[in-house]
Amino acid sequence: MADDDTHIVSKKALKRDYIDEVACDLFARQGFARTSMRDIAGAIGIRAPSLYNHVDSKEEVLNRILLTMFHAQYSDLKKALAVSENPIEQVKKGIVAQVHFRITHANAIIVAARETLELNANIKNEVLSLRDQQYQAWADVVERGVQARLFHVPSVRLASITMYDFFNYLEINILRIQENISKKELCNWYMEMALQSLGRQP
């Protein structure tokens, strides 16, 4: 009997972005190592052999999820920082962009935190390069703020890493769900903490 799954799922389910979305949810919930191609196929609603018609391996899916996420994250940060040339306003806009990104891409953020070491060397280097470009984008903002005597930090590099790594993805979602804190309140809270860490009162 032919392995015909097209009656089970819509055409959308056979597109790579949908496969990635389903796989990302599984990787976030049960881990990459514990997720099989059969698990991904089952969550989509097709048989495992059919999934191989669209992707070669779960490693391919993981690579694409993380590359897509880091490219989107860097793009969002650049757009936010480009809104103003004032370092204080750039910090505010950048923090808001990062909070929103971590909320809307929560699963991918979890997967990135857990699974980056599983990437092959080339993909890992590209991912780390995208992360380092975000560090540098923040460093440029902090350096200009220091030069303008708006910020007071012992190390621009440390401050730039802090701006990027300011957020715990679990903390953000726990605050939103369990504490019923709105996105706006979260953004204001993180903006205040970010500016204080730079030696500036908001």
TrEMBL record:
DNA-binding region per UniProt: 36-55
Annotated InterPro entries: Homeodomain-like_sf, HTH-type_TetR-like_transc_reg, HTH_TetR, KstR2_TetR_C, Tet_transcr_reg_TetR-rel_C_sf
Gene3D superfamilies: Tetracycline Repressor, domain 2
Ranges for domain HTH tetR-type: 13-73
Keyword Disulfide bond (UniProt): no
MF terms (GO), sorted A to Z: DNA-binding transcription factor activity; transcription cis-regulatory region binding
A Pfam family that the UniProt record links to this protein: TetR_N
Keywords of the record: DNA-binding, Repressor, Transcription, Transcription regulation
Protein name: HTH tetR-type domain-containing protein
